[in-house]
Structures are given as structure tokens and as C-alpha cells.
Specification:
With about 180 residues, the protein is an alpha+beta fold. It contains three helices and twelve strands; from the N terminus they run E-H-E-E-E-E-H-E-H-E-E-E-E-E-E. The protein has helices spanning about 20-35, 80-85, 105-120; strands at about 10-15, 40-45, 50-55, 60-65, 70-75, 90-95, 120-125, 130-135, 145-150, 155-160, 165-170, 175-180. The longest helix has 14 residues, at about 20-35. It is elongated and about 75 Å long.
């Protein structure tokens, strides 16, 4: 079998899968590539995920969420054989493209997906105006109101009462907990 390097037509394609089967399709396809000796033709198989930080009641937890549920990215040289192997992998319902012929992603689309993978998303259990209790630092146990949340949700501005005066305090988003009620 001829060596097909990076410059010999390898491009990213997107295979559509049953939702929830992305990782299974990736594993099945990797096995099929190995069994058929297609490592030079199908170089990489990815299920893009992003890390999402959830903050509930002052507790941080990081989960991984699929960026494109129902899709698997495949970097390959498109031939009748590679097309056949991917299309006939259990869980694959087809390729993204007009008709049944796969269309490669553009360089710009590939770059945008790379940026998505590096991004960390933070979901907070509170919003501007909510009453919160400070859980760290010199104002620990003080109560205040959320005045502002930074765009990346890593920092928040809380107006806390100290010595009878309202003071703005910048805190990490994990240094407060929502007051119920």
C-alpha cells in the first residue's frame, strides 16, 4: 500500500452518528482502520468536547460536553475504500455533504473547531442581582449582591456591606454561594 502523507489529500470530513454513540463510533472506526490496515488513509478520528465548569452552591465541578452531538470528525484521504469503511461502521448514519458524497471541512471550519476545544465554559448557579454568601477571603461569611459577572464568568463583582458601607469586592466565581430564598 502506498504511503499517503499529510500533503497527499488528507482532509477532515464529518460523519453523522446516532446521538450518544459518538465515542462508540470512534472506537469501532479505529478498530476497522486497524483491521483493514488503513492507518495511512484514515489518520485521526475525533469527537470534539469542551470542558464545562459548573458551579452550584459554591462547589466547582468540571464536566466534558460534546461540542457537536451526533457527529464524529474523521481526517482521511477520501477513496472508495475509506468512504466504504466509515459509512459502514456501526452507528454511522452517513456523511455531512450534499447527496451521499462527503464534503471536506474548510481550513477555516477546522480552525474554528480547534478554538472551541480550547475554550472552557463556566455555568453559574447565580446571576446579577442574586444574594450570595462569600465563602473565601477576608469577607468570608459576609452577604452581598452580585453586581457584575465577567464575560468569561471567572470573576464577579459583589456589593457587600462592611462597616456599615456598601463596598464592591471582586471575587472568583467559586468564592461565593447562592443564598436560597
Amino acid at each position: 500500500m502506498a504511503d499517503h502523507g499529510e500533503s497527499n489529500g488528507l482532509q477532515w470530513y464529518v460523519a453523522h452518528t446516532y446521538s450518544g454513540y459518538e465515542n462508540k463510533v470512534k472506537a469501532n472506526l479505529e478498530k476497522a482502520v486497524e483491521n483493514n490496515g488503513m492507518q495511512d488513509l484514515i489518520k485521526e478520528i475525533r469527537v470534539p468536547v469542551e470542558e464545562v465548569v459548573e458551579i452550584k452552591n459554591g462547589k466547582r465541578r468540571t464536566i466534558q460536553r460534546k461540542v457537536f452531538p451526533g457527529y464524529v470528525m474523521v481526517k482521511m484521504l477520501l477513496t472508495n475504500d475509506t468512504w466504504y469503511v466509515v459509512r459502514n461502521t456501526r452507528g454511522v448514519t452517513g456523511f455531512v455533504g450534499p447527496g451521499s458524497r462527503p464534503v471536506p471541512l474548510t481550513d477555516e471550519e477546522v480552525a474554528n473547531i480547534g478554538e472551541l476545544e480550547e475554550q472552557t465554559v463556566i455555568n453559574l448557579s447565580y446571576k446579577v442581582g442574586d444574594s450570595v454568601k462569600i465563602t473565601a477571603g477576608f469577607l468570608k461569611d459576609a452577604v452581598g449582591k452580585v453586581a457584575e459577572i465577567s464575560d468569561d464568568k471567572k470573576k464577579i463583582m459583589v456589593i457587600a456591606s462592611m462597616f456599615g458601607r456598601d463596598m464592591p469586592v471582586e471575587l472568583g466565581s467559586d468564592e461565593v454561594t447562592l443564598l436560597e430564598g
